[in-house]
Specification:
The protein is mainly β. The protein folds into 2 domains: 84 residues, Carboxypeptidase-like, regulatory domain (Immunoglobulin-like); 684 residues, TonB-dependent receptor, beta-barrel domain (Maltoporin, Chain A), CATH 2.40.170. It has 7 helices and 50 strands. The strands form 5 sheets. It has a 22-stranded antiparallel beta barrel, surrounded by 4 helices. A 5-stranded mixed β-sheet has the order 9-14-15-12-13. Strands 1, 4, 7 and 8 form a 4-stranded mixed β-sheet that branches. A hairpin with a 2-residue loop joins strand 40 and strand 41. The longest helix is centred in the first third of the chain and has 22 residues. 44% of the residues are buried.
Length: 933
């Protein structure tokens, strides 16, 4: 479908609205609203008046009811006039019941105070309940769809600094790491592109230039009230969620009716770097104007001095001097010594105002900045620059020493205004939101020094994890003398990517009845208007002075003498300050440092894009005694316009020209959805869901760029005609909730995907580039993904005495997949066969401790040209520990220990014995104090 613009979209919405009115006239009986009334109220803890979200409030003997929101409020509409028994149930609390008289056409208020169930729970364990699980599990239990909820209290019980690390504890969720920290989130064996990430229900723009995925290391966990992982979406949600949807929920002034002041201050230690980690956070919230105005301010700062020891290998086909093929020769060995300083700054300010019980406004702001200063010292052995006498004997190869000096800053912020109004029995809500993200990398320098002699190399490949190189034609120590390296190039980069969203949506919900069965009908529309662009400038500078510049002129004072536990020696490296000072003094002087624009990495990477997405939906909810039915659909239409560039190089490798290319396209996706929840008992649910969902192509894949390298007869091109990946998803789950706080659950899921996206490598036939090797992202055929997950969380309060303080947190997920690719079957990227968490906790006498293990199996990270060239992210098992102890009433001490077994990050190509990256971080720890008033 080509360009369904605003007028056609509006006409479609009008037709849907007319159909909706006709449908409602059929399913809603003609009973006067004046003959019925409403029941409203709030559910709180009787001891401290704390709000209890997710409470089940219903009328005895009927299917009419409501679930309390995050402020504990509930509303039951269209209640027959007269005497009604109101019942409220909540995990870990005694059931509540009372009888009220509902006036015809009027409203009666019932405020409910619940008492902790002391039969099941001791006074000691109650504090643990306050710290996490009960509110989150109650929300899960009464949700209309399949989801997992992590409360802020439970976040604090694990040593997780950012939002990605929090999510690794959720069933069926795994993460990718960068420099030892969680970064990207993968849900149910799907790559990060197939998942949706939101803040307060709105998509987060991506600061990165190529991908739609959002690296959640940008958002500190301390800013959040909860995280919701939705595994089967409902019609009012955006459809970009094949794997699942992650919603980061910020704190609200209406989360409590009391003043809140929390302050955290701490410091830590990175064992590898022998350097410090520092953090501070605060939260302040209060209610004003008689409780109608709620303010919540939150801020967090985290600074870590960390790094890693890394070795990377390239393996590929090479011909020896006798023209015999060596199929998997070692082409490149890199020893990378990283020194990294990272700081996160997060601030949120939220304002809620209640005009009355029927009219509210919410204002949400959040700002996050993540700065990553990285110095990478690299020793690079280049066998591929020499002649292969055999797989282990190379003549006249090259050795290089390099320094990368760059500071990358990612910024994400958003503003939103949200109104909620009740007009008789109709709920109206709307939202206007603006979000912005950018990634800035100014004045990056990559400096290369080359050894002044060719090197004959003898390779020891007996252990491919640590291949060894011996230089046989030079004196001992020659390659580690700084004076033997000559400046080859300084690459300067100035890069900026921005992404902006403006979103408006409107929703209407009204009660309906089908043959006496109560329910609700909801419909609405949404528009999201996005602009994204990337501006890269890459300039290569060479030295044109009279004398060579040597590494010894820029030498750093330090050298890592225990790199990778002594397996390698990195040797001398340049000092970043000396190199930057030299560059600033000489790069604009004619005849000394001479620069040339790299058009491939500049023009070829740059683009401008606009994407306008329109959506409308309908949703019907019916409550048949113990069965809840939710059905509906969502229709999304996207118009895109992209501008990219064609960059041409001639047969000599010289730049020829750059030309602008524009293209456009549109997507139209109809997504049906059905959810069923049946209560076998008040604490046992069986759920089934059938949903449609999509995943849009990455930004850069849609750019109509073309990079032609005639010297190598290679070409890379984008594809504005890519279609989104679509999926039909089936979910079946069962869950039982324990009164003593906990849940045991299990479920099966199946996904049928179409239009999967992969990079195709093929030979051009015909035209001016006949015979060129072309790389292009394309839509593939179909794929299936299926699996099951199991989850057990429980406070063992039924045990006697000391043992009642123990708790268990464990989950396991198995997935498998098949993807149709040209000429072969493959598994989907991101699909790890096994994902598991296990933690043992103890809470007693103000003490809380937890030892946790997180595991994921290996999976394909990048699809190659064949099975042998698929790149795998290897399995990972990380052990962490966290402890807190109440010192006095409002002050707790804490200590966190991360990666206790020095688990590395590891990638390999094709088979496990061909590693391409191994990275070690050692362990790190943090400790400090928390003040909670």
């Amino acid at each position: 479908m080509r360009f369904m613009h605003g007028e056609r979209f509006i006409n479609t919405c009008v037709r849907v609205l007319v159909l909706t009115v006709l449908t409602l006239s059929i399913i809603t009986p003609g009973v006067s609203a004046q003959a019925k009334g409403h029941i409203v109220g709030r559910v709180v803890d009787a001891k401290d008046n704390g709000y209890l979200p997710g409470a089940n409030v219903y009328l005895n003997g009927t299917s009419r009811g409501s679930v309390s929101d995050r402020a504990g409020e509930f509303r039951i509409v269209n209640v027959p006039a007269g005497s009604q028994e109101v019942i409220c149930t909540y995990m870990g609390y005694d059931d509540f019941s009372t009888t009220v008289n509902v006036p015809p056409g009027g409203t009666v208020r019932v405020d409910i105070e619940l008492d902790v169930n002391y039969v099941m729970l001791s006074e000691v364990v109650v504090q643990g309940i306050r710290q996490g699980q009960v509110k989150a599990l109650s929300q899960q239990q009464n949700a209309e769809n399949i989801q997992n909820v992590v409360s802020k209290e439970l976040m604090e019980r694990f040593p997780d600094v950012n939002s990605a690390e929090v999510l690794q504890r959720v069933p069926a969720v795994s993460i990718q790491r960068d420099q030892g920290e969680g970064r990207y989130v993968l849900v149910r064996g799907t790559s990060e592109r197939l998942n949706m990430t939101m803040i307060n229900g709105e998509l987060i723009p991506s600061p990165e230039g190529e991908t739609r995925s959002v690296a959640l290391d940008v958002v500190p966990s301390g800013q959040l009230a909860s995280i919701e992982v939705t595994k089967a979406i409902t019609p009012e949600m955006d459809g970009d969620a094949i794997g699942g949807a992650v919603n980061l929920v910020t704190k609200s002034g209406f989360d409590s009716d009391k003043r809140i002041l929390n302050v955290t201050a701490g410091a830590g230690y990175s064992a590898l770097m022998e350097d410090g980690i520092y953090q501070a956070a605060f939260t302040y919230g209060d209610r004003y104007s008689g409780g109608d105005l709620g303010l919540m301010l939150s801020g967090q700062f985290y600074l870590s001095n960390r790094g890693s020891d890394n070795n990377e290998m390239e393996w590929g086909s090479e011909d020896d001097v006798n023209d015999n093929e060596i199929p998997w020769a070692l082409q490149n060995l890199e020893l990378r010594d990283y020194i990294v300083t990272r700081d996160r700054e997060g601030v949120s300010a939220n304002l809620d105002y209640r005009f009355n019980d029927d009219n509210k406004m919410k204002f949400r702001t959040i700002f996050n900045r993540f700065s990553d200063q990285e110095y990478r010292r690299r020793l690079r052995y280049r066998p591929d620059k020499g002649d292969y006498n055999s797989a282990t004997d190379i003549s006249e190869a090259a050795i290089e020493r390099e320094l990368k000096d760059r500071k990358e800053t990612q910024t994400i912020y958003s503003f939103s205004a949200h109104g909620e109004h009740r007009i008789n029995t109709i709920d109206l809500d709307y939202k206007l939101a603006y979000s912005y993200a950018e990634e800035e990398e100014p004045e990056r320098l990559d400096t290369t020094f080359e050894l002044d002699e060719d090197a004959d190399m003898a390779l020891d490949l007996s252990d491919t994890d640590t291949p060894q190189v011996t230089v046989t034609n030079l004196s001992s120590g020659y390659i580690h003398e700084a004076g033997n390296y000559v400046l080859d190039e300084i690459a300067y980069e100035d890069n900026l990517t921005t992404d902006q969203h403006f979103t408006a949506n409107l929703n209407l919900e009204m009660p309906v009845s089908l043959m006496g069965t109560p329910g609700a009908f909801k419909f609405g529309g949404k528009g999201r208007f996005k602009t994204k662009d990337r501006e890269n400038e890459v300039i290569a500078y060479g030295w044109e002075g009279d004398d060579d510049l040597l590494l010894s002129q820029f030498l750093a004072d330090d050298e890592d003498t225990d790199f990778m536990g002594g397996d390698y020696r990195v040797g001398p490296s340049p000092d970043p300050d000396k190199l930057r000072d030299f560059f600033e003094d000489h790069h604009d002087r004619s005849g000394e440092l001479e620069g040339e624009l790299n058009h491939e990495d500049s023009d070829g990477a740059n683009y401008e894009a606009t994407e306008n997405t329109y959506a409308y939906y309908t949703k019907l909810t019916l409550n048949f005694d113990n069965l809840q039915f939710v059905g509906g659909f969502r229709h999304e239409i996207s118009d895109i316009e992209y501008t990219g560039y064609e960059v041409l190089y001639d047969e000599e490798g010289d730049y020829v020209s750059t030309a602008e290319i524009m293209d456009d396209a549109s997507f139209s996706n109809f997504l049906p959805m059905l959810h069923l929840r049946y209560k076998l008992t008040p604490k046992t649910n069986v759920r089934a869901a059938f949903t449609g969902s999509i995943a849009r192509p990455h930004y850069y894949d849609l750019v109509p760029y073309r990079i032609v390298l005639s010297e190598d007869e290679e070409m890379s091109i984008g594809n504005a005609s890519l279609e989104p990946t679509t999926s039909y998803n089936l979910d079946l789950t069962a869950e039982h909730y324990f009164q003593g706080v906990g849940v045991v659950s299990g479920g099966f899921f199946y996904k049928s995907l179409d239009n999967i996206i992969y990079d195709r490598v093929f030979e051009q036939e015909g035209g001016p580039y006949d015979g060129y090797e072309v790389t292009q992202p394309v839509n593939g055929e179909t794929a299936t993904l299926y699996g099951f997950e199991m989850n057990w969380q429980q406070q063992l309060t039924f045990l006697p005495g000391f043992w009642s303080g123990f708790g268990v947190y464990a989950n396991y997920t198995y997935t498998d997949s098949e993807a149709d690719l040209p000429g072969r079957q493959n598994t989907l990227p991101g699909q790890a066969g096994d994902v598991a968490n296990a933690a043992i906790s103890y809470e007693r006498g103000g003490f809380s401790g937890r030892i946790s293990a997180n595991y994921h199996g290996s999976y394909i990270d990048e699809v190659g040209e064949d099975d042998d060239h698929d790149i795998y992210y290897d399995d990972h098992l990380q052990i962490d520990a966290s402890f807190t102890q109440r010192i006095i009433k409002n002050i707790r001490a804490y200590a966190n220990f991360i990666n206790l077994t020095d688990e590395p990050l590891r990638y390999y190509i094709g088979t496990e014995d061909r590693p391409i990256q191994r990275e070690f971080y050692s362990w790190w720890m943090e400790a400090g104090l928390k003040l909670e008033l």
